[in-house]
Amino acid sequence: MIANPDSNTEQAILEAAEKLFLEKGFALTSTTEIARVAGCNQALVHYYFRTKDNLFNSVFEKKVRLFATGLLQVHQPGISFEQKLKQMIEAHFDMLRANPGLPFLVFNELLTNPERLKKLKGNMLDLPKLVFFPLKAELEAEIAKGNIRQMTIYDLIISVVSLNVMLFIASPILKILAELSDGEILKLVENRKQENVIIILKSIKPTI
Amino acid sequence: MIANPDSNTEQAILEAAEKLFLEKGFALTSTTEIARVAGCNQALVHYYFRTKDNLFNSVFEKKVRLFATGLLQVHQPGISFEQKLKQMIEAHFDMLRANPGLPFLVFNELLTNPERLKKLKGNMLDLPKLVFFPLKAELEAEIAKGNIRQMTIYDLIISVVSLNVMLFIASPILKILAELSDGEILKLVENRKQENVIIILKSIKPTI
DNA sequence: TTTGCATTTAATAGATCTATTAAACTAAGC
DNA sequence: GCTTAGTTTAATAGATCTATTAAATGCAAA
């Protein structure tokens, strides 16, 4: 029998692992539980991926890239820098809304597992340039024209990412503590999308 | 022999636990390792705190309160709302800088352990009011006077906390990925303190 | 039908972790 | 000096987790 390149079982294991790793992180997820969710024997997890670490890396790097490239989008030509920035913030926000568990997974694993972070550095050397370069020149041109106050591209990215990401890290906690319904959380999140755009656009203005 | 109310050993265990929990979270810290750092036998950890969970709660609630009350500061009377806001942002920022591992611990444990979050809700009912109430009335007065655009106190708090907290969650990662020296990180952090103040103060202004 | 190979299962080795227990140690008070 | 109570230690029970192994199963081709 020829091996199915995308075996049903292998795919089920990957999906179960992704779900559980996103929910609880690496340390709190056991291969036994992955197998249970995937509907197979625990040894099968090791048959396909040999180690839990391999399995984790299979889902992790894809997720990190998703996380980082959320900022990088193709824009309509001819629109203003501010409009472009607004589109980027919204695209990043929408990516996070579609993957709300992503920031937690990425931060949790990179902070608790230093080797993972060092390994990542090698694989992701292209990303900063992909994300920063298209924006950097434009930002500096706008500053030179006096349309935007003095600031670096790093400051801008950090601010956007902070505002967008923290919302999705904190909202499960906010939901419980403030006793919000699902509907109320949805409304709050949608409102923060506009709020984050407003904050960034106002904050880059010159004068004072 | 009379029990020392603040036994040397008990205190050493608490401090070791605090250090390790802050570094690696609950799941990745073992009582054996806590004992090693505290310089005592592993069974002593259980002698003093019975369970690992008890020990964790002993350090955790104190830390959550520290995290939440960072925003709550006594201000000089008679200064403007904007100056007061600036002081709050800076005080919150300074608290985080003095406890950089705090946000990770709080988010990590509250997100991976739902029972911890529910339990916390009971113990922290006073906090939202302590933090929000002093500001809420003033904010609404400023909005009525037309000094500040229409926004809620929750939006303001979320923005401040997002900008301040995310910096300290992300900076260990940023340090590795961008290959920054300790000095460069210090400089970046200090710069972000002013940047966050500027962002918030600009973002609350009326007029588009 | 039989052979061969990928897949799946049950069983388990080996490591580690929490928590308990029983015994040893230490020093104050009678 | 002996008793007593708090403190500390070594040993280990019991649970859980990763990873391996050997055997069983299913299916396609010969």
Written overview of the protein:
2 copies of one chain form a homodimer. Chain A is mainly α and 208 residues long. The first copy, chain A, folds into 2 domains: 8-50, Homeodomain-like (Arc Repressor Mutant, subunit A, Orthogonal Bundle), CATH 1.10.10.60; 59-203, Tetracycline Repressor, domain 2 (Orthogonal Bundle), CATH 1.10.357. Chain A contains 10 helices and no strands. In chain A, helix 1 (8-24) packs across helix 4 and helix 5 runs parallel beside helix 9 (153-177). The longest helix of chain A has 25 residues, at 153-177. The first copy, chain A, is globular. Chain A binds a DNA duplex (30 and 30 nucleotides) through helix 3.
Which tags fit this structure?
homodimer; 208 residues; mainly alpha; Arc Repressor Mutant, subunit A; Tetracycline Repressor, domain 2; 2 domains; 10 helices; 0% strand; DNA-binding
Detail the poorly predicted runs of chain A.
Answer: none
Percent strand of chain A equals: under 5%
Number of individual domains of chain A: 2
CATH superfamily of the largest domain in chain A: Tetracycline Repressor, domain 2
General form of chain A: globular
Under CATH at level 1, the class of the largest domain in chain A stands as Mainly Alpha
> Span from first to last CA of chain A?
73 Å
Order of helices and strands of chain A: HHHHHHHHHH
Question: From the helix content, strand content and strand pairing of chain A, which structural class follows?
Answer: mainly alpha
What's the CATH architecture name of the largest domain in chain A?
Orthogonal Bundle
How many DSSP helices of chain A?
10
Number of strands of chain A: 0
Radius of gyration of chain A: 20 Å
The largest interface is: A-B, 42 and 41 residues
Output the CATH topology of the largest domain in chain A. Tetracycline Repressor, domain 2
